[in-house]
Q: What sequence folds into this?
């Protein structure tokens, strides 16, 4: 097994966590920028994508309006596979899981896509601003019934989840705080709410397709009376409630723990957080400090996180299981299947669903439970089949390029060990256990790769190496990040 | 799927005896809704034909439509790389076309239009050119992909009675004009949203007075220019409730009642000047205008994919 420099290992680790992996070619470019420079560029880059909206909309009018969950999910998948700002899509995935909103109730793809766009734009910003945007987000207003939260007849659903799942966590507020919080958000609604609710319930597209939704503040439905919230007293509205929430140490801990869970190492499921301490209290403390020092700035917290020793440590490399969306994005970016929009995107989006994650349709307001819960018999088979099928497909331009790179500069033949080393390297400097490595070498031997004359029988060699690539795609270290 | 209505329609052809044919591109996985709907100016419904697939009478990404002098309907298919031919009644007759980039081969045939000799011009968009065929698919000539002023992913095409070819040059944000032999004459417009500018124009048609009608897809509008390309008028759309939609509401009070209390024409100011967002929120506006067609009565037909409808205008005196 060839030894990989620590710089390369670290950069590969960063790109797996802050993006969707990187090939050797991409890693080489990143390394020339330096680790901290890459962290900065990932956080500070403007949102840009290789496949622009106009191109997608030309071929797929349904994705232009993101008519339903299929179109909206496919549209997001284009972004995931073609973005030049991978961390921006990653942060959208992060918030989509924390502020989980589902198509089953929204039944309109555009508000879902609009919410994602809001996450891309505000996901690195200040938490108070993000929560304000979230509270005015039409998909969220329908999803958690704030449209039915009226002056004198509150609906607590949004107020409760804002405190329990979106900011502080259970145990840090009272039932009275929930009621007072809900009162503050009365009148935070959407335009044409009665009509929109009917269309959503009936999943109606009549007469001219689904209407876009927009936030509307209904002043005459807002409870402007005095409220007592977390020990503060005043005629609070939602914005002031959010300001109080963001001042809480519980919020700092909750957000820190979520970021650690998503980017560093699996924490237990969120519902158990009130009863289980974080596994790395020191790391959480560092993130909490960053939260307050930066004025609740998520981007700064992430910058601190990626530059911290607890993130860089090799003890957390390959310790997270890629979500289906992360795995598929990693594979499809590597294969370069989607240089331009094509009809297969819908099929790929469905395959992510089969692996256990339907984009834009989380199972509940808790989002997806992550870590080992991504793996069960059916989903593991789907994951392995997906990665193996695509990374072993020589017709895909990215695979073809990698296989050529493996063969280049090898003269007449390549040993099984070198072939395995180069495949792992090309796929992003993947480090395997000795057992997995030996198994891959054994497989390469069995395919006869070492005995093929690379100069005379290049096509045969390419086919065998692509078979090896499909096996590499199935090893735990590729399925993990 | 049977019945009236469209699902992401992309083009309309004016057929024989005033019959109108509109093709719905639909979407995956709802491919059962891919079809051509026949109706007339009074919303009389005559049925559907076509469907998803690769067999005779089927298509996967239908895009352009044209009617020949006997009323047969031609439909381009960007994914199957072929031209489908149907009778006036929607019976499949044949298809032709082979994929590729050599002369006579197709890579993403989009807009199509007949000239007065009965030959068919095809916007072969992924090959960045226009090709001319007989109506049976025999290659005649191609142009637009060589020399200066080359096309970039052209979409709509139109041929005047005088033989001039107008192309909605989608990727270059302009309308290109050629003579009947494919010689470039001039172009109109540049990228932008001002008068006479375009963002990814999708369709073009020219009336007998020389007025040029352009579906300015990226700006969600219809622009009208004079024969020299001077700006005349811009329309953002003013759809009303169709007869079919009216009948739907008659039987669906639960939707009709709250709709009657809704504001479907909010001020566009709040959408930051983004025409896509304005059209998403304001129902009467064009949203995804993919083609413009004219009939002999002076009517202008704009097919809007995103609102699943066709807006029809009378030409002003």
A:
């Amino acid at each position: 097994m060839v030894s990989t420099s620590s710089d390369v290992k670290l950069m590969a680790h960063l790109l797996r966590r802050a993006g969707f992996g990187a090939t050797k070619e991409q890693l080489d470019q990143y390394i020339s920028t330096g680790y901290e420079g890459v962290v900065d560029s990932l956080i500070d880059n403007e949102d840009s994508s290789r496949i622009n909206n106009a191109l997608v909309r030309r071929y797929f009018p349904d994705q232009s309006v993101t008519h339903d969950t299929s179109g909206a999910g496919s549209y997001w998948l284009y972004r995931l596979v073609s973005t030049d700002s991978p961390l921006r899509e990653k942060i959208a995935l992060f918030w989509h899981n924390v502020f989980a909103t589902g198509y089953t109730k929204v039944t309109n793809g555009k508000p879902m896509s609009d919410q994602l766009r809001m996450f891309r734009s505000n996901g690195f910003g200040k938490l108070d601003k993000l929560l304000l945007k979230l509270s005015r987000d039409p998909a969220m207003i329908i999803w958690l019934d704030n449209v039915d939260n009226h002056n004198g007849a509150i609906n607590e659903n949004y107020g409760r989840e804002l405190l329990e799942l979106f900011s502080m966590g259970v145990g840090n507020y009272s039932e009275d705080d929930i009621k007072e919080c809900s009162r503050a958000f009365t009148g935070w609604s959407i335009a044409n709410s009665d009509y929109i609710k009917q269309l959503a319930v009936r999943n109606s597209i009549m007469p001219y397709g689904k209407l876009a939704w927009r936030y509307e503040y209904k002043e005459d439905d807002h409870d402007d009376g005095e409220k007592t919230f977390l020990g503060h007293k005043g005629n609070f509205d939602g914005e002031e409630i959010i300001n109080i929430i963001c001042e809480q140490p519980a919020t700092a801990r909750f957000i820190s723990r979520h970021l650690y869970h998503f980017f560093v190492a699996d924490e237990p499921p969120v519902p158990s957080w009130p009863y289980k301490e974080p596994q790395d209290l020191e790391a959480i403390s560092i993130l909490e400090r960053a939260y307050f020092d930066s004025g609740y700035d998520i981007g700064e917290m992430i910058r601190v996180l990626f530059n911290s020793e607890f993130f860089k440590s090799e003890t957390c490399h390959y310790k997270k299981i890629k979500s289906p969306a992360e795995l598929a994005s990693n594979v499809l970016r590597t294969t370069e299947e989607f240089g331009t929009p094509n009809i297969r995107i819908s099929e790929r989006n469905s395959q992510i669903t089969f692996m256990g994650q339907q984009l834009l349709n989380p199972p509940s307001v808790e989002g997806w439970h992550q870590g080992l819960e991504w793996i069960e018999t059916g989903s593991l088979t789907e994951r392995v089949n997906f990665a193996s099928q695509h990374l072993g497909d020589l017709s895909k331009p990215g695979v073809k390029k990698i296989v050529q790179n493996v063969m280049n500069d090898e003269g007449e033949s390549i040993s099984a060990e070198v072939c395995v080393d180069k495949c792992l390297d090309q796929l992003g400097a993947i480090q395997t256990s000795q057992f997995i490595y030996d198994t891959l070498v054994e497989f390469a031997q069995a395919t006869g790769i070492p005995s093929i004359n690379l100069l005379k029988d290049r096509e045969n060699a390419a086919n065998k190496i692509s078979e090896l690539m499909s096996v590499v795609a199935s090893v735990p270290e590729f399925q993990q990040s | 799927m049977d019945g009236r209505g469209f699902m992401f329609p992309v083009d309309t052809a004016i057929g024989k005896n005033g019959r109108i044919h509109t093709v719905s591109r639909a979407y995956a996985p709802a491919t059962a809704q891919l079809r051509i709907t026949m109706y007339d100016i009074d919303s009389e419904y005559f049925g559907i034909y076509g469907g998803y697939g690769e067999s005779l009478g089927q298509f996967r990404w239908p895009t352009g439509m044209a009617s020949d002098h006997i009323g047969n309907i031609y439909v381009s298919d960007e994914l199957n790389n072929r031209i489908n031919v149907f009778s006036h009644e929607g019976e499949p007759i044949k298809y032709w076309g082979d994929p590729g980039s050599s002369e006579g081969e197709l890579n993403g045939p989009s807009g199509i239009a007949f000239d007065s000799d009965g030959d068919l011009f095809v916007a072969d968009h992924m090959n960045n050119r226009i090709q001319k065929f007989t109506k049976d698919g025999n290659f005649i000539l191609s142009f637009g992909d060589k020399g200066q002023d080359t096309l970039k992913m052209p979409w709509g095409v139109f041929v005047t009675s005088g033989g001039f070819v107008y192309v909605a040059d989608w990727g270059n944000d302009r309308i290109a004009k050629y003579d009947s032999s494919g010689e470039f004459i001039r172009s109109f417009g540049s990228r932008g949203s001002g008068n006479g500018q375009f963002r990814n124009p999708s369709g073009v048609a020219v009336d007998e007075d020389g007025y040029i009608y352009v579906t300015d897809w990226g700006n969600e509008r219809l622009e009208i220019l004079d024969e020299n390309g001077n700006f005349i008028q811009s329309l953002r759309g003013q759809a009303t409730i169709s007869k079919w939609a009216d009948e739907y509401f008659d039987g669906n009070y639960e939707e009709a009642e709250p709709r009657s209390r809704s504001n479907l024409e909010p001020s566009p100011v709040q959408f930051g000047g983004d025409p896509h967002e304005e059209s998403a929120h304001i129902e009467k506006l064009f949203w995804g205008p993919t083609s413009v067609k004219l009939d002999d009565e002076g009517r202008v037909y704009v097919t809007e994919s995103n609102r699943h409808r066709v807006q029809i205008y009378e030409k002003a005196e």
Observations:
- Chain B has a mean pLDDT of 95.
- Chain B touches chain A through 48 residues (CB under 8 Å).
